[in-house]
Write a structure and sequence with these properties.
nine-stranded mixed beta sheet, Spore Coat Polysaccharide Biosynthesis Protein SpsA, Chain A, 33% helix, alpha/beta, 3 domains, 25 strands
Length: 582
């Protein structure tokens, strides 16, 4: 089968150099944030990448694993989250007061129950602040806002009287979007709690519709090009407290271009005790627009997110659950038993892909158990093994499930397969826990190298982003759900990546072909990671992946906040000069 695999963009030598520099940065940053002077001294004596450094890491690996595990179970974060956020806390600034020059971009800022109107120009943007009484009906909301986009207005932003705007940053965001020809301009924003604590909300460069169903990604830190809103029928009749979210959803449904600038433009008070009925209704309507005739149920979720279930009207497609194994009957039998015990899906079968099992107990189990067996002989190559299994089935949907997993959620297949019914969704992954109950996988971010997000280790502030069903750059291959037709279209996994990064590479290829990868936290699977293959991590796999996707170079993860990067176990803020250079 011909595989749709991109060419390598950099040399192997360059890939090795970048990989070494990244490891040096991991060690240096961890020493810095934890004030570990012993590590700082060790790095001077044993530079990362040298044979002495590798030997020292090998000998100290048991201790390093224990230290990492200890950090993962600590209830109180050791460092601020994200690291470096303190340098971005805003200070009070005076409102600009420049006169209009003419021919500027016009930004109208509608403030419900705002104090007074004013006009000023900064950064080539004429800002018109327009206070309006909060409308009492959805008809009034739509009528008043549509009046604002019928004349010379270029951009429109809708906020509340208690929002605090950084107009210098806002005009930068709008000016960038104007120059980019975008329809939607977004920035980052602060959630201002009653005790004065400011919680940062970092917006992703790409606004995925699935993520928008699950959480209010932009808050009110968003401006709309007036003509783009008008061309889509204007503002819709809905409550004033959800008009921004509704407009963002409809703009993205219509293919609006988004320009995100990594600057904080708004401080918005927390909506304590807010009635979210209108929010749930507009999300339900949006999902139904995406999948007509489907039954959709929306409920409040954790950290301000929304949980929604989609049940298609059509018959459920057939599913083949493929489980690769080489002996390890203890793992395989437990995995299969969990699938049979909790699965409620009406049309599935289990297929074991046998990579040269030799133990008598395993062979007897495979011969006597009610599962299909596909032989996949040869030296271990995960990509070849799985490709062999997929080639042997003809079901509509393929699930690749590691033999060291235990399925926990009863409706796991319905939840994951239903997400494939959404437009252009190509692959779905889910939440994984390790056997001790600690998070292991909440999606994979590539900022700048693929790593699992984990609320107990790196993403130490569970928020709506982490708790949302959302678009993401990659999900772990421990559980992939995909249409067999798309698998065949892409040619399956690349067998040049024998052990690691074949799953991430596959997810990136899916997106390169115009499809989405979705992570859902609504399905839980236990995963004893590397129990079957050990800790084998070939350097060739890593170098191939880095060279192919220009990792540490031009590659950017559009589904992870642009302001943040993940270095080892530390998520840190990029400085303004770093984000402006992106």
């Amino acid at each position: 089968m011909i595989r749709n695999v991109p060419d390598e963009t950099i040399t192997r030598e360059e890939a090795r150099r970048r990989w070494q520099e990244y490891h040096e940065e991991i060690w240096r940053l961890n020493a810095e944030v934890r004030h570990d002077h012993s590590v700082t001294l060790a790095l001077r004596v044993l530079p990362p990448g040298t044979w002495r450094f590798r030997l020292a890491v090998y000998l100290a690996s048991p201790l390093l694993r224990r230290r990492r595990a200890t950090r993962a179970v600590t209830t109180t974060p050791e460092i601020e989250f994200p690291y470096g956020i303190g340098q971005l806390v805003p200070t009070e600034s005076a409102l600009p007061s420049f006169k209009r020059q003419g021919n500027e971009t016009i930004l109208r800022v509608v403030i419900w129950d705002g104090p007074e109107s004013s006009t000023f120009t900064t950064r080539g943007v004429c800002v018109q602040i327009l206070p309006l009484p909060t409308p009492h009906s959805p008809y009034e909301v739509a009528t008043r806002l549509n009046e604002m986009i019928s004349d010379e207005t270029s951009w429109l932003m809708i906020i509340r009287a208690d929002d605090i705007v950084d107009y210098d940053a806002l005009t930068t965001v709008v000016d960038n979007a104007e120059r980019a020809g975008a329809d939607v301009a977004t920035g980052d924003w602060w959630d201002l709690s009653p005790d004065g604590t400011m919680i940062p909300h970092f917006v992703t460069k790409t606004l995925g519709e699935v993520q928008l169903y699950s959480s209010d990604v932009t808050g009110r830190a968003v401006a709309f090009r007036a003509s783009a809103v008008a061309s889509r029928g204007g503002f819709r009749e809905c409550a004033s407290d959800v008009i921004v979210r509704d407009t963002v959803l409809r703009m993205m449904e219509g293919g609006a271009a988004v320009c995100h600038t990594a600057q904080f433009i708004l401080r918005s008070p927390t909506d304590l005790g807010a009635d979210r009925h209108h929010e749930r209704e507009l999300v339900r309507d949006a999902v139904v627009r995406a999948v007509p005739d489907a039954t959709v149920e929306v409920r409040p979720g954790p950290c301000g997110s929304l949980n929604w279930d989609l049940t298609p009207s059509m018959q459920w497609p057939s599913v083949a659950i493929l489980i690769p194994t080489r002996d390890r009957l203890d793992l395989l039998a437990r995995c299969i038993e969990s699938v049979r015990t909790v699965t409620s899906y009406p049309a599935y079968r289990i297929v074991v892909i046998d990579n040269d099992s030799v133990e008598p107990a395993t062979l007897e189990y495979l011969a006597s158990n009610d599962v299909e067996v596909v032989p996949a002989p040869g030296p271990f190559n995960y990509s070849d093994v799985v490709n062999t299994g997929v080639a042997a089935v003809r079901d509509d949907i393929v699930v690749t499930l590691n033999n060291d997993t235990v399925v926990v959620t009863p409706n796991w297949l319905e939840s994951m397969v239903s997400l494939l019914m959404l437009p252009r969704v190509g692959l779905v992954g889910c939440y994984l826990e390790d056997p001790s109950g600690h998070p292991q996988h909440e999606g994979i971010s590539i900022a700048p190298y693929p790593q699992h997000l984990r609320r107990d280790l790196n993403y130490r502030r569970p928020d709506a982003f982490l708790n949302s069903t959302r678009e993401i750059s990659a999900v772990t291959g421990a559980c992939h759900v995909i249409r067999r037709s798309l698998w065949n279209e892409l040619g399956g996994l690349d067998n040049k990546l024998r052990v690691v990064q074949n799953d991430v590479d596959f997810c990136l290829r899916i997106q390169a072909h115009g499809y989405k990868v979705i992570y859902t936290p609504r399905v839980k699977i236990l995963h004893a990671e590397s129990s079957s293959r050990g800790s084998l991590t070939p350097d060739n796999d890593i170098e191939t992946f880095i060279a192919r996707w220009d990792i540490f170079g031009n590659f950017r993860d559009d589904h992870f906040p642009e302001r943040l990067e993940l270095i080892g176990d530390v998520i840190r803020c990029r400085r303004d000069d770093e984000t402006n250079a992106i």
